[in-house]
Design goal:
Helices cover 53% and strands 0% of the residues. The chain contains six helices and no strands.
Length: 136
């Protein structure tokens, strides 16, 4: 394994909101083993913060139940044009700042799909909410 560089420590420290000058000073003083340890701590802190954010977003989304799209039956779903379930599952519509409207008969999976998409957005760190016409 290659020794951790000062630059790698600085990058990891940015995610932990630590001052670059302090990180540089301590990273330059440290031995390769100490740099490796410091880098590991900073990366673990960043991952912990990301997970906490995802959990906060999921809670704030007020989902009626936590759902996923794995194994979702798309036989009752009709997409417009060349749009299909792959761009939907990739949350492509969010990246392009487009709205998504789900409509159809009772029992076709609209609520399941909506909650799964909101949960997927939250897991990606995107703030999203679940709304029914009653909550508007």
């Amino acid at each position: 394994m290659n020794p951790i560089t000062v630059q790698e420590i600085l990058e990891a420290g940015k995610h932990a909101s630590l001052t670059g000058s302090v990180l540089t000073e301590w990273a330059e003083k440290g031995t390769p083993k100490q740099r490796e340890y410091l880098h590991g701590v900073l990366v673990a802190e960043h991952e912990s913060r990301l997970e906490s954010r995802r959990q906060r977003l999921l809670k704030a989304a007020r989902l009626p139940a936590l759902k996923t799209l794995s194994g979702f039956d798309y036989t009752c779903v009709k997409f417009t044009g060349d749009y299909g379930h792959e761009p939907l599952e990739s949350l492509d519509f969010i990246d392009r700042a487009q709205d998504l409207v789900l409509y159809g008969d009772v029992g076709t999976g609209k609520t399941h799909m909506a909650t799964a998409l909101v949960a997927a957005a939250c897991r990606r760190g995107i703030a999203a909410g679940f709304f029914t016409p009653r909550r508007w």
